[in-house]
Amino acid sequence: MHEFPLVLFTLLMQGAVGVMLMLCLTAGLMPRAGHMTLVTLPALLGVGVAAGLGLLASTLHLGYPLNAFNALRHLSSSWLSREIALAGVFMALLGISVLLLMMKRRAPWPLLWLVTLAGLADIAAMASIYCHASVVTWQHVNTWAMFLGSVVVTGASITLLRLALRPLFNAQTAQALSRRLSLLALTAVLIRLLVQPAYDHFLAHAVVPVTFPLQSLAAFDASAGLRLAGWCCSVGGALLLMVNLTRPHGARSGQTTSCLLLLLGELLLRLAFFCINV
After folding, report:
1. Whole-model pTM above 0.85?
2. How many other CB atoms are found less than 10 A from the CB of residue 130?
């Protein structure tokens, strides 16, 4: 699959931004004495590694990777230029945050929010690249829903896995964190499901020029099985999270399984997204 580097790039970047978003949204639930540093430093380093690998994967899609720097010349007119610039801002602010955390032993939360906002702006620019492309299956608000939703689902799933595999807090704090993260993931899955009828209606009335080289609608139909598997994993993971929320102390095995299903669903849906030719 020629677009597989883009699958890796988009998922890794969205996962990195998602973890940052979850850190910020759950900061008020964390204990105030010492534990915030222990939680944030490994997460920031993991975010940096994931984002770095994602950017590296994106260069594999280019015939000549150094040409990526030429895209920065068109910030006023090109979403690709904006996406590259915002990714650089995200990485730079993240690096500063890690240095401050290591020196002061305190999480610089205002700066971490700036990192998160830069990351979200980067994902918005990323989605805009595809929305404004010539591929008809991308020219819908569904692309925004899938990309921004992936930030929430992937970030929440990774953070929940971290809590399930290596608990760092007492039971009450861990339960509050798991509940908030689960609700965020469930909301993202639900919103994306609600967009699908409008997306299907859009595709049913879409017209592709005869001279266009990519058979995106035919590829969309051909990847129906892949999309179905992705949605089954995503919905199945969401349902398991709902079951876990009804228990006073959700089982870690159920939480782990639901997160793995959600992550597998993201991978399958992204593979289907980039199936643009038969």
Report:
1. yes
2. 21
